[in-house]
Structure formats: structure tokens, C-alpha cells
Amino acid sequence: MKMDIKEAEEYLNGIPRFSKKTTMENERKILELLGNPQQGQRFVHVAGTNGKGSVCAFLSRILLETGHHVGTFTSPHLVKITERFLIDGKQVSDQVFLDAFHRVLALCRTHEEIVHPSYFEFLFLIGMLIFKEAGVDVTVLEVGLGGRLDATNVIEEPKVCVIASISLDHTEILGDTIPQIAGEKAGIIKPGCPVVYDGTDPEAAAVIERTAKERGARSVPVRPEDFEITGRDQAGISFRLKEGALAGRKLRLPFVADYQAMNASLALKAAGILRERLHEETDWESHFSSALLHTSWPGRMEPVLPGVYMDGAHNDDGIRAFLETARRIPCEGKKYLLFSAVSDKDYRTMVREICREGDFAGFVLTQIDSYRALPLEKLREAFDGETDKPVYTFDEVREALSFVREKKGAEDLVFIAGSLYLAGSVKALLG
């Protein structure tokens, strides 16, 4: 019996109850049974702790504006599961998703020799079928977690790899030091495949450089001194590169966060290498400015209403970058924060950073609708221990959003952060 989109999503959400991450061998076996849809696809593989989704968005838009048919696989989704599968920047239809879903499901039910894939593995398999069927020119593939053991790392010959910013996150899985986590991220580097990486952290850079050298891969760092921010306002930032074909040209991003200049620079560098490896002689550079300006990446310091910004920051480094951006946005009135978190994050450190480094006049707390949700009483306790500013609590996101919108004055700003689940709930409420 065929499922509809709601039933399929419920099935996928139930997978963690009976299936954990499997092995690369199991994944390859399923792909073989599916006809190896990954073979023949040309991939850009993107890893990192923070920023990898933005890099994927920039690269996908660059490819689209240079005349390519582009598939993009990212995670997580904010509102609807089909957000993870983009063809030329647009979500695939429910029917396209369901056709691929049922093909994978049929194998899981009829082949006893395979282990049922995990949630993310199942989605990756669906993506490989979707992009193969669509006949895309290039697939931009975002790593789910880590890199070395990630489901996406089953691909064998990407055209270029990108490793965005690396920081401490998922330490229980990836390790509790920067070099350990960098080692996991660097696991996507394949022999002879160029890797472009964020060279800000010297410990992470050393691991990536060493791994690339061991695998005979060209390594290309992008460092903060390679570009400069030239302007910012409530709608975005401007920056310029200091070297290369675009050196000196003013580039504009529709994002207010300074860190997006690094993500855009990584994408531009990777695009240049990708063009070489695709052996294309067409002019790409003339499209770069327009591509950056028209890139969309929901939930990343996104203006969702006048004076209301939503950001998916959900770990220590993400919160620090969020706070730095929030401070720089001009505000004639007060700033308020709507916040929630999941229980498996270091929420106390995030709350401490917010209360000590943020300039918020008050905090609105809520509990997200997820099995991973941090109980509201624990969140309230963490804020009470760090601030004497007003703290308001609401059991439901809808109530919290309504309250903060009513409280906001004409000159005030509201920020929403702490969890991508929260960002998704807000997006759904706003339609």
C-alpha cells in the first residue's frame, strides 16, 4: 500500500526507534540494489560544523546562474521534508519524493540481507534516486554529521570538497577537541580531489592540510585576511576579495551576518576549481556577483518580518556568531530574544554567552515540539541563574511568538535563535 507524504514522513520519523546508523558496506549494498544511482553523478561534497549549508546555497546558486542543472541535498529541513531535495533551487514535488521513498522502502521490506537504513541514510538514498532521475549536471551534497563515517561519504570521486568552519559540536560522537573533529570532517577528502577549507583555526587547518597531503589532494585555504567587509545595513553586507579574478570587486550578500563573507568566499574558490575540473571554458566569473546577491538560505539570520530576524544558531560557536551579528544591526529601540534549545546541546554555555555578551532587554522562552526538546523549566532555570532581565516563558511556540510580536515596539528588534526546530516552527506559523 502506497503512503502519502504525511504517512511517509511519519514512517521516517519513526526510524530512530528501530534502526541506528549502519555501515558503508550496507549502504553500498542498498545502492547496488537500486542500480547505483550515485554513479555518473558529479558531486561537490561539503562538510563543516557551521556554515556548510550556506556554502551549499551559494554554490548551488552559482551553478544555476552559470547555466547548470543543479541538485542540492541539505539538512535539516525547517518545515517540510522536501526542502532537503532541491532541483535548480526549488523543492521537489511530493510525488517525486514519494516515488523515490517507495523504491527504498520496497527494498527494506523485501531484502533480508540488508540492514534497514537510519533516518539520514534513508534520506540520502532517496536523494541519490531523485538527482539521478532528474539528470542533474552537478549535485551539491551536504554532509549530515562529521564526514568520515557520514552516509554521504559513500560517494567515490567528488569534483571538489569544501570544509567550512570547524568548532566543538556533537563531541560525544566526533571527539572533544578541534583536531579530533577536524579529522572526522577531513574524512571526506578523497585521493586527488581538491579541498577548499576555512583556514581560520590553525589546529583544524593543520589536520586538513596533513590529510590532504597524505591523500595526494590539493588543499586551498581561505583565511579571514583574504577578504574584507566594506559595508553593512539591515538588509545585508558588502565585501571584497583581496586576490584572484574578483580581487577588488565589490560583492553584495543578502545576509546580515559577517561570517557569510567567509562562506561566500569558500563557495567562490570552490566554484573556480570546479570549473577547471569540469573542463568548461565558459565565463563563470561574470555571474558570481549576481549569484551571491540572489542566494537564499532560510533560517540563517533571515528577516522573517519587519524588525524580526531568525537564525538557526544552535551550538556555542553559532551562538557567538549570532550575538556578534545581532550587536551590529542598528537598533533605535530595544532588542528581545525568543529562544529554545534541544536537550543534547550544551544549552547552559549558550545561555551564559547570551546573557553576558548579548544586549537584550528581555528573553522569551518556549519549548519546541520534539522528542529532543529541552524542558521549559530547565531552560528557565538556566536563564534565571545568568540574568536579571525579564524572562517570559510559554509552553507553545505559537504563544511565545504572539507575545513577542505584541511586545515589540516600532523601533525594537526581535531575534529568534537556539534551535533549527524553533526556526522551523516559526516558519510554519508565519506561513
List strands and helices in order, with pairings:
Elements: H1 5-14, H2 24-33, E1 43-47, H3 52-65, E2 70-73, E3 85-87, E4 90-91, H4 94-110, H5 119-134, E5 138-142, E6 160-163, H6 171-174, H7 178-185, E7 195-198, H8 202-214, E8 219-222, E9 227-233, E10 236-241, E11 250-253, H9 259-277, H10 285-293, E12 302-305, E13 308-310, H11 316-328, E14 335-339, H12 347-357, E15 362-366, H13 376-384, E16 391-394, H14 397-407, E17 413-417, H15 420-430
Parallel strand pairs: 1-5, 1-6, 2-5, 6-7, 7-8, 13-17, 14-15, 14-17, 15-16
Antiparallel strand pairs: 2-3, 3-4, 9-10, 10-11, 12-13
Helix pairs in contact: 3-9, 3-10, 4-5, 7-8, 11-12
Query: Per DSSP, what share of the residues sits in E-state strands of 2 or more residues?
Result: 15-25%
- Tell how many strands the DSSP assignment holds: 17
In CATH, the topology of the largest domain is named: UDP-N-acetylmuramoyl-L-alanine:D-glutamate ligase
Structural shape:
globular
**Which ranges are low-confidence, i.e. pLDDT below 50, for 5 or more consecutive residues?**
none
Distance between the termini: 31 Å
Label the structural class.
Answer: alpha/beta
**Count of individual helical segments:** 15
Q: What kind of sheet is the major sheet?
A: 8 strands, mixed
> What's the mean pLDDT score?
91
CATH superfamily of the largest domain: Mur-like, catalytic domain
**Reported CATH architecture of the largest domain:** 3-Layer(aba) Sandwich
Strand order across the biggest sheet?
A: 4-3-2-5-1-6-7-8
Q: What's the CATH first level of the largest domain?
A: Alpha Beta
Please state the CA-atom Rg, rounded to the nearest Å: 21 Å
Count of discrete domains: 2
Helix content: 40-55%
